[in-house]
Amino acid sequence: MPPTLTQNKIFSDSKSHYEILDGLRGVAAIMVVIFHLFEAFSEGNHLKQIINHGYLAVDFFFLLSGFVIGYAYNDRWHKMSLKDFFKRRLIRLHPMIIMGMIIGAIGFYFSASPVLFPQLSLIPFWKVLLTMLIGFTLIPLPTSMDIRGWGEMHPLNGPAWSLFFEYIGNILYAVFIRKISNTFLSILVFISAFALIQLAVTSPNGDLIGGWSIETAQLRIGFTRLLYPFLAGLLLSRVVKPRHINHAFLICAGLIILALSFPRVGGAQNLWINGVYDSLSIIILFPLIVYIGASGNITSKWALQLCRFFGNISYPIYIIHYPFIYIFTAWVVDNHISLQTGWWMGLVVLLGSILVAWACLKLYDIPVRKWLTKRWVK
User: Fold this and answer.
1) CA terminus-to-terminus distance, the chain
2) Helix-strand-coil percent breakdown of the chain, rounded to 5?
3) Which range (136-145, 221-230, 347-356) has the least confidence?
4) Where residue 144 falls among pLDDT bands split at 50, 70, 90?
5) Is residue 2 over pLDDT 80?
6) 338-347 mean pLDDT
7) What are phi and psi of 296, to 5 degrees?
């Protein structure tokens, strides 16, 4: 039967593709940018943050990644080696990692701030260049080499920490997890869910924010945030039997926006309540959203185009936006800008990030990936 717009999966030369899930990834990525913009006005207080749970988008990305990788590769291993798998993943992810580091290096001195980053103007250029080159490899930097002072493993582009864990998830899948039974995988999902709940409800901040440093506590957060959603996504890809759900993209996009912008719960006196919210969102709501999205039908051309647009910019905007956030945050703090007077600049940063992401996609990412695919992949 020929493909139609009523099908969520658009057929290509190899395997059908979940357009709605790509679109949802884009919605979540834009919510991350908005979350970081509002974070500049929160004075470092998690309780004051507007779009309060935007950080959970990372956990949603891990779940989507597990589902999509499982769906795309589970039945290919009879004709694909480990080397082939890692080549494909490197081609898909790494060009934009390099671009994100380059943009971070270019914007580094522009984010110098007497309040936030007073030392930035004193950092020698060779050190910025060295940090960028190491960042190209995604090897985490120790805190002793943190040139920004925020404790990030990638101080030129903070969100790259999640790509570090994404690669770990890919390695675990290819070397070990793909071989195990559904029963064993279900046990691992249960254990990782328990670990996630325990971390969330006992967190000193009452949330799952963290994972961007190689300090012991931060590594624990990073691995805990990776394991449940990634494993649950892989399990979902094995057992899910999609149905036909109309308006799935609108339903799922609405649920994502609601979940990520939901106000803080529990307040300062009952931080654990917000930890429960984080846990339930990741363990129950996000898999439900992925299931609905995988079951959805695209019934109109504009919906298909919207999903493709959001899907196309989702990864580029996530990996390139934060250098602009450094600069924006420094401007807000140094000039005592309030939300009422600085919202317009936040809008400029959001739209500018979308534009830069689109330009990087069309002029750099797609051509480089095509060239690498022809050169490396059989």
Assistant:
1) 28
2) 70, 0, 30
3) 136-145
4) confident
5) no
6) 95
7) -80, 160
- What angle (nearest 5°) sits at the alpha carbon of residue 187, between those of residues 186 and 188? 90
Tell me the two tokens of residue 51. Answer: 């779009």
- Residue 2, in any domain of the structure: no
Contact 19, 9 (CB under 8 A): yes
Quick one: average pLDDT of 325-346? 95
SS3 label, residue 164: helix
Which tokens is 267 given? 């307040």
Domain count, the chain: 1
Residue 157 DSSP label: S
Q: What's the pLDDT at 47?
A: 85
Q: Is the pLDDT of residue 16 over 80?
A: no
pLDDT band at residue 15 using 50, 70 and 90 as cut-offs: low
Which run of H or E residues covers position 10?
Answer: strand 9-10
Q: Does position 12 have pLDDT exceeding 50, yes or no?
A: no
What pLDDT sits at residue 114?
87
The answer to whether residue 203 is domain-embedded is: yes
Name the token pair of 63.
Answer: 């779940």
- Is the residue at 172 inside a domain? yes
| CB-count exposure of residue 358 (10 Å: 0-12, 13-18, 19+) | middle
Given a contact cutoff of 8 angstroms between Cβ atoms, the answer to whether 99 and 358 are in contact is: no
Domain holding 201, by residue range, is 18-376
Residue with tokens 């080397």: 83
**Residue 13 counted as domain residue:** no
Residues 6 or more apart whose Cβ sits within 8 Å of residue 7: 16, 297, 298
Phi, psi at residue 364, to the nearest 5°? -130, -60
- Please say whether the beta carbons of 106 and 118 come within 8 A: no
